[in-house]
Design a protein that fits this description.
The chain is mainly beta. It has 3 domains: 128 residues, Sandwich (Immunoglobulin-like); 86 residues, Immunoglobulin-like (Sandwich), CATH 2.60.40.10; 82 residues, Immunoglobulin-like, CATH 2.60.40. The longest helix has 30 residues. It is rod-shaped, with a radius of gyration of 63 Å. A hairpin with a 6-residue loop joins strand 8 and strand 9. It has 3 helices and 29 strands. Strands 11, 13, 14, 17, 18 and 19 form a 6-stranded mixed β-sheet that branches.
């Protein structure tokens, strides 16, 4: 029940006390002229000042009391003000030392804090009128320059089709909370789960489009500020893999070759290279090698494995060595023996054939060579150039020889050739 404090020397003490009792216990009739309260400034801030000024007051106001509540209980009374000609004010139990009253029953509060937010009531008593006691209530909201909020995710990496939750940590005085992904405001929908004050955002059935940088933006009548981005990644894949260069590949022996294993996966997968079914112990994304032996050709496979999703994808490419310098496969012992025997038999046949040809050539007169073939012919006897026989002597018994000389072939024989 509201109680008007005693004013020393006040002639209206009894009347005011009775009016206070009536104002607390009886339901007041509506005023003929509405009394309103103007708040100046409209958006008071922490650390600033505010004035609560009643409007349309009657001319014969005797006293007015301010209460920090929606009722006029004595425990919530801030002060009681007596207007001129002898202005005075008496503090009440809810007075903090920052409140003062002025003409027109205006209440001034300095050094505002967030705790000053709430309902205020003024009880006005006048000498005359149909409603000598009036009670007017007003709500006061103290705003602050909001500190930067933070976003706390329950997890920073979520599996595809999973669920994650984000919490916006901000001042309780924030009036609004908005959510953004990659700088774009999120439109409320049935899919997004929002708390009544939007301070918690739940995203179910996560798709790849839900990954990104999330922010919350808080606002008040005097400020608006966003949090730093909080990144949520989506773990997925690999669904498939491929090898660059595509095959099949024909490589000259000794040439450098780079094979790259490509797969779409978050986080980045681990890699393993296999040649002809045998692990090469190579774990880099790019396989670089220079084939120098026949054994390095075959089917190369890369395995991409995501340890978070547990998924694995394979890709393969065929590669063989070409060129005149390419080594040949090793021969078996039987093949080597067969080649040796065949070589010896071939050498023997060649020797026999050469001897046969040589024998035939020796039994034949050569028809042509570099020197002409000499043909000899008999010439007629000529006078003996020896001693002259004497007349009457017997003939010389010595044999008579004819001379042989090379015959020159005639033109016909030349043409016949």
């Amino acid at each position: 029940m509201g109680q008007i404090p005693n004013r020393p020397g006040g002639p209206w003490r009894a009347i005011l006390l009775a009016a206070s009792v009536l104002g607390s216990c009886l339901q007041l009739a509506p005023a003929q002229t509405p009394v309103t309260i103007i708040i100046t400034p409209l958006s008071p801030m922490v650390g600033g000042d505010v004035s609560l000024a009643p409007q349309n007051l009657p001319q014969d106001v005797l006293v007015c009391s301010w209460y920090r509540s929606a009722t006029t209980h004595e425990s919530s009374r801030i002060l009681t003000y007596y207007p001129p000609p002898a202005p005075d004010q008496i503090p009440g139990p809810a007075h903090t030392g920052r409140e003062t009253a002025g003409p027109g029953c205006t209440l001034h509060i300095a050094g505002l804090t967030l705790s000053d937010t709430g309902n205020y009531t003024v009880l006005i008593q006048s000498r005359t009128g149909t409603n000598p006691v009036r009670s007017i209530r007003v709500g006061l909201r103290i705003s602050e320059m909001l500190p930067r909020p933070t976003v706390t995710p329950d997890q920073t990496q979520v599996l595809e089709n999973g669920t994650f939750t984000l919490t916006c940590n901000s001042s309780p005085s924030a009036d609004t909370v908005l959510w953004l992904r990659d700088g774009a405001s999120l439109v409320p929908s049935e899919r997004l789960g929002l708390s009544p004050e939007n301070r918690t955002l739940m995203v179910p059935n996560v798709t790849r489009g839900d990954a990104g940088a999330y922010q919350c933006e808080v606002g008040s009548p005097v400020s608006s500020v966003r949090s730093e981005p909080s990144t949520v990644t989506l773990a997925y894949g690999p669904d498939s893999a491929r090898i660059d260069l595509p095959g099949p590949i024909a490589l000259t022996l000794g040439s450098l070759l780079n094979l790259t294993c490509v797969s779409d996966s978050v986080p980045a997968p681990s890699y393993r290279w296999v040649l002809n079914g045998t692990d090469t112990n190579e774990t880099r994304i790019i396989l670089t090698f220079n084939p120098t032996t026949w054994a390095q050709q075959g089917t190369y496979k890369c395995r991409a494995h995501n340890p978070i999703t547990g998924r694995t994808a394979w890709a393969s490419v065929a590669m063989w060595v070409t060129g005149t310098d390419a080594p040949r496969p090793a021969l078996s012992a039987g093949a080597v023996a067969g080649i040796l025997i065949g070589s010896l038999a071939g050498a023997a046949l060649v020797g026999v054939g050469a001897y046969f040809l040589y024998s035939r050539c020796r039994n034949k007169t050569p028809k042509k060579n570099g020197a002409p073939v000499l043909v000899y012919e008999n010439l007629p006897l000529t006078a003996w150039a020896g001693p002259v026989a004497q007349p009457g002597s017997s003939p010389d018994p010595s044999p008579t020889y004819q001379t042989l000389q090379p015959r020159q072939p005639d033109v016909y024989e030349e043409l016949k050739k």
